[in-house]
From TrEMBL:
Subcellular location: Cell membrane
Organism ancestry: Eukaryota, Metazoa, Chordata, Craniata, Vertebrata
Gene name of this polypeptide: CDH16
GO CC annotations, alphabetized: adherens junction; catenin complex
Name of the featured protein: Cadherin-16
Keywords: Calcium, Cell adhesion, Cell membrane, Glycoprotein, Membrane, Metal-binding, Repeat, Signal, Transmembrane, Transmembrane helix
Length: 829
């Protein structure tokens, strides 16, 4: 439930608060109303049911409206009590409210605006009764030189205050009656075109003008007033001015007065324009000022235009021109050209070659000493003891040329040139201009070998192609890498392309290589001439002797090593083989190869010998100490007969076998004389001269020894007769008559061979002749002698047997003391 008191409050709110502002009522009252008063103006929209309240009227200003306006309580009309004057107050702002007795506002406030409608009851007034004005000659027609001022009290904007000016009279009316024109609405007085020409012809005046002002606009009726204008004509002082010369950087207080202009007419306003815009100003009196320092280099000249204007900003006449010239001061040093990249000059350039031109600019006035620049070369300085300088400078133009002193590739030279103004006079300003000159290389150096004569190089014939023979080094004194590139070639000595060159571009090292097989037979030596050239074309004198190098290559002969038909050799020999027993032949694998010489290297036992030429290996002596089953290894060396350093060695393995009973195979025999038994002092001559006699030198002696058979050594004795012969005799007193083959080892130098000497041992008569022929002796026996022989033989056999048995008995007795030696003897029998 809503409380009852809140409900009441809600209903009473609109009554308690004033109503929203009501629309303003607008009422117009004619000024100076001539009818009856009070004049009812308008009925106020008062609420009828609230009539018991009191109507309150109030103004918005201090104006007491109480007696001027009122509200008729009965009719609710607003009324005015007397005539209103618009010029006194043009508008009244009223407020009407209906209030209860306790002051509570019952209705309103209702704003009411009361406007007083104007009546033309005011007369226009000139601001002055007499105007005095000076008119300068040269004033353009139509440009007002005087503004007449008039006022009218009536309401502005209505015809009642709409004023019109006009000239009523001009005195004198010379030379024309209408010298002037007056702009009717504005009251602007100006010369008429005609009057302008008249004024220029001769100095006239003064003139007196009667002017009128009238309200109500262009209507014929209206209030009017008059005034007098006295126009005095003055000579024009608006004359051209001399140029003003102003020093730049002038140290004076600013603004600084530089000139004066004057417009002799009245009401002038000066206006200044600078072309180009500059720090200039003009004041109300026509004084021209510069407001700050000038800089000739920024702007050397200004053209000022000063205008004389009326209040409306219209020019009375043409603007006055004033030239301002800024005077130069030497406040700018010569300016060097911006430092560019280094200038490249090829070395060897002739003197006088233009290098560059250092043109220093001076911002000061052209053609004046302030901008007259001369040049001096500061660096490089003239060096002591040198003739001339590397650079020459033209002091007036700043051109730099090459001097007499030559330049060298790779030099970086800093050129410093002093540029001075005032023509180099004392007190001139200066700058140092710099430019770098880089001396570029020219390919004027030919490459050269560091050594032109190389030590001879020895190469074996079998050197493989691709082998490095020699490395040559060449240098080039030029700097530019492109000029240091070299080409190499074999100029002479290699017609068939056996050799070649290989090099890394830019390295300066060239490798001489073998490309083909060498041949000692074809060419035992090569003299190679290697030449080096610059890849880039050469400037100046050509290559010198250093451009060639000679390499001598000596070819070493290579002979094949001797080659034998077997890798190793083996032979077997019975341990009882006599000296001179043939074992085997060592021979070359290719019978047509170069002749060889054989020798034994380490035959420490001395058992063997080898024939130097044929390679036959024999036993040199009895193999004393060798045991069956053993082996004996020696090295055999085979040398090239013509080139002893070429040799090869091979092993020879001897296998020892059990002693063989078979005698050695037949060998060379000597003729057979006979020896007698029992022994007499005869012997047999053995000659050493044999099949090898022709190979020896014939002077070295032969030596003789009995073969290794022990029986033979017991039974026989051999002794040397002279260098080539020996004497073989019986060693025992008795030797069984028989035919014997006695082995004799003959040795001479390293050679050794065996002879089998055939000897017949027989019984002899007193004369030393054989009594009984044995074997297949030659000669046919007679029947008688045969019987004799048979009987003799039987007899002899009997005696022989007795002797043998006696001997055996004696031998058996001996065997008890000495066993051994007799066994082989018994076996032999
Ligand atoms: C060069 O010699 C090698 C070895 O002696 C041989 O194998 C090769 O065939 C030879 N080349 C020429 C082109 O004679
Ligand atoms: C000889 O030399 C060979 C190889 O060095 C060796 O095998 C052999 O035993 C040597 N012979 C002697 C008798 O020294
Ligand atoms: C050596 O002696 C033999 C036999 O007496 C003889 O024939 C030969 O001429 C002798 N030789 C020399 C060189 O004396």
């Amino acid at each position: 439930m809503v409380p009852a008191w809140l409900w009441l409050l809600c209903l009473s709110v609109p009554q308690a608060l004033p109503k929203a502002q009501a629309a303003e009522l607008h009422v117009e009252v004619p000024e100076n109303y001539g009818g009856n008063f009070p004049l009812y103006l308008t009925k106020l929209p008062l609420p009828r049911e609230k009539a018991e309240g009191q109507v309150v009227l109030s103004g918005n200003s201090n104006t007491a409206v109480g007696d001027l306006f009122a509200v008729d309580p009965d009719s609710g009309f607003l009324l005015v009590t007397r005539a209103l004057d618009r010029e006194e107050q043009a508008e009244y702002q009223l407020q009407v409210t209906l209030e209860a007795e306790d002051g509570q506002v019952l209705w309103g406030p209702q704003p009411v605006r009361v406007h007083v409608r104007d009546e033309n009851d005011q007369v226009p007034h000139f601001s002055q009764a007499v105007y005095r004005v000076q008119l300068s000659q040269g004033t353009r027609p139509g440009v007002p030189f005087l503004f007449l001022e008039a006022s009218d009290g009536d309401e502005p904007g209505t015809a009642n205050s709409d004023l019109r000016f006009r000239i009523l009279n001009q005195a004198p009316a010379q030379p024309f009656p209408d010298m002037f024109q007056l702009e009717p609405r504005l009251g602007a007085l100006a010369l008429s075109p005609k009057g302008s020409t008249g004024l220029d012809q001769a100095l006239e005046g003064p003139y007196q003008l009667l002017v009128q002002v009238k309200d109500m606009g262009d209507q014929a009726s209206g209030h009017q007033a008059t005034a007098t204008v006295d126009v005095s004509i003055v000579e024009s002082t608006w004359v051209p001015q001399d140029p003003v010369h102003l020093a730049e950087n002038l140290k004076v207080p600013y603004p600084h007065h530089i000139s004066q202009v004057h417009w002799s007419g009245g009401d002038v306003h000066y206006h200044l324009e600078s072309q180009p815009p500059g720090p200039f100003d003009v004041d109300a009196e026509g004084k021209v000022y510069v407001t700050r320092e000038l800089d000739r280099e920024a702007q050397a000249e200004y053209l000022l235009q000063v205008r004389a204007q009326n209040a409306r900003g219209e020019d009375y006449t043409e603007p006055l021109e004033l030239q301002v010239v800024v005077m130069d001061e030497n406040d700018n040093a010569p300016l060097c050209p911006p430092r560019g990249p280094p200038i490249s000059m090829p070395e060897l350039s002739p003197p006088g070659t233009k290098v560059t031109r250092l043109l220093a600019e001076d911002m000061d006035a052209p053609g004046s000493p302030n901008s007259h620049v001369v040049y001096r070369l500061l660096s490089p300085e003239l060096e002591e003891g040198t003739e001339g300088r590397a650079f020459e400078l033209d002091s007036t133009s700043g051109s730099v040329m090459l001097g007499a002193l030559p330049l060298h590739a790779g030099q970086h030279i800093l050129l410093q040139v002093l540029a001075v103004d005032l023509g180099g006079a004392e007190g001139g300003l200066s700058s140092t201009c710099e430019v770098t000159v880089t001396v570029t290389d020219v390919n004027d150096h030919a490459p050269e070998f560091t050594t032109s004569q190389i030590e001879p190089v020895s190469l074996p014939e079998d050197t493989e192609p691709g082998t490095l023979v020699a490395t040559l080094t060449a240098t080039d004194a030029d700097l530019e890498p492109a000029f240091r590139l070299m080409d190499f070639a074999i100029e002479a000595g290699d017609t068939d392309g056996t050799f070649g060159l290989d090099w890394e571009p830019g390295s300066g090292h060239v490798q001489l290589q073998l490309l083909k097989n060498l041949s000692y037979e074809a060419a035992p030596s090569h003299e190679l001439v290697v030449v080096v050239r610059s890849v880039a074309p050469l400037v100046g004198p050509g290559a010198g002797p250093g451009a060639t190098a000679t390499v001598t290559v000596l070819v070493e002969r290579v002979l094949p090593l001797p080659k034998l038909d077997q890798e190793s050799y083996e032979a077997s020999v019975p341990v009882n083989s006599p000296a001179g027993s043939f074992l085997l032949t060592i021979q070359p694998s290719d019978p047509t190869s170069r002749p060889l010489r054989f020798s034994l290297v380490n035959d420490s036992e001395g058992w063997l010998c080898i024939r130097e030429v044929s390679g036959e290996v024999l036993t040199a002596r009895r193999l004393q100490g060798a045991r069956p089953g053993d082996t004996y290894t020696v090295l055999v060396e085979a040398q090239d007969a013509g080139e002893p350093t070429l040799s090869t060695s091979v092993t020879l393995v001897i296998h020892f076998l059990k002693a063989s009973s078979a005698p050695a195979p037949t060998l060379a025999l000597v003729p057979t004389p006979h020896l007698c038994t029992p022994r007499n002092n005869h012997g047999v001559i053995v000659s050493g001269l044999g099949e090898d006699a022709d190979l020896g030198d014939g002077h070295s002696p032969y030596s003789f020894a009995l073969g290794p058979n022990p029986t033979m050594q017991r039974d026989w004795r051999i002794q040397a007769l002279n260098g080539s012969h020996a004497y073989l005799t019986l060693a025992l007193h008795w030797v069984e008559p028989s035919e014997y083959s006695v082995p004799v080892i003959v040795s001479r130098n390293t050679q050794m061979w065996q002879l089998l000497v055939r000897v017949i041992v027989c019984r002899c008569n007193k004369e030393g002749q054989c009594l009984l022929k044995v074997g297949r002796m030659k000669g046919m026996p007679t029947k008688l002698s045969a019987v004799g022989i048979l009987v003799g033989t039987l007899l002899a056999i009997g005696i022989f047997l007795i002797l043998i048995f006696t001997h055996l008995t004696l031998a058996r007795k001996k065997d008890l003391d000495q066993p051994g030696d007799s066994v082989p003897l018994k076996a032999a029998v």
